[in-house]
Amino acid sequence: MGRRKAAGRPINGWLAIDKTEGMTSTHVVAVVKRLTGARKVGHGGTLDPLATGVLPVALGEATKTVPYVMDAAKAYAFRLRFGEQRDTDDSTGAVIATSDRRPSDEEIRAALAGFRGVIEQVPPQYAAVKVQGERAYDIARRGETVELAAREVRIDELELRGRPDPDHADFHMVCGKGAYVRAIARDLGTALGCCAHVVALRRTEVGPFTVAHALSLDALAEIASSDTLPQVLVPVTTALAGIPALAVTEPQALRLRAGQAVRVAPALLGENEAAVLPATVRAMRAGELIALARLEGVELSPVRVFTTGPMPTGTRE
Fold first, then answer.
1. pLDDT tens digits, residue range 134-164?
2. What secondary structure, in 3-state letters, does the chain show?
């Protein structure tokens, strides 16, 4: 018997969804799958239920590029409340410590300097990181405490943006993969000697995806019902914009898609040969993404192969 055909439509591309508060990232994926009928759907970086903002959602062949989006820089706007520490490090948790101290703006700005650059950060107890194959938040929900190891994260920008009242402060942050805003809140509160937790969090950017171009699920429902999804789908290659492109011939494209390495003429590498060797490149043919491939010397070996095509229209399968 042949392999059973996956249910759903072969839709390839990205959607930037503006997630609402209280919804999990997994639920957003389920809603997108139901609305679009896509065969395969995944997201490019979890957002906490409390958080709102950009959740990149990959459909079809775009799911192969999810790791590149998760590695991209992310921007957040968030509000802290001083005077309380909570077990989740946000307003959904139980209060575990309090303080009457309220820091000044000058004290906050001075403390922020210690949180920029490459820093050591311990993830929150309620985090998606795995401990011996189990999510930390599942362990925490059972009332158990787990020792999470500190890890290096990169904070590119961290600024105080406003102070609505002595109890609250608003911040802007740009960071690399794996940084937790909730951990910044916890550790900043400790550094200021006042306790703190997150009360509002909005992700405004993930790599090339911005909140300005994100769709609500209600808007997506209208688009899907009117069969105009192709107009809002972002190309698969958007997630790979930072990876050098290399043109290949039709015969080379066929071999790469068959999982076979090919040789590339040195002339095709151009003046930047030394800068990209060995490197991951986008193998392109007539504007179409063929594969992510490893270029070593003049040999090009496929790492991820793509088979994209026009999105089907009309009645769903």
1. 787 777 787 777 788 899 999 999 999 999 9
2. CCCCCCCCECCCEEEEEEECCCCCHHHHHHHHHHHHCECCEEECCCCCCCCEEEEEEEEHHHHHHHHHHHCCCEEEEEEEEECEEECCCECCCCEEEECCCCCCHHHHHHHHHHHCEEEEECCCCCCCCEECCEEHHHHHHCCCCCCCCCEEEEEEEEEEEEEEECCEEEEEEEECCCCCHHHHHHHHHHHHCCCEEEEEEEEEEECCEEHHHCECHHHHHHHHHCCCHHHCCECHHHHHCCCCEEECCHHHHHHHHCCCCEECCHHHHCCCHHHHCCEEEEEEECCEEEEEEEEECCEEEEEEECCCCCCCCCCCC
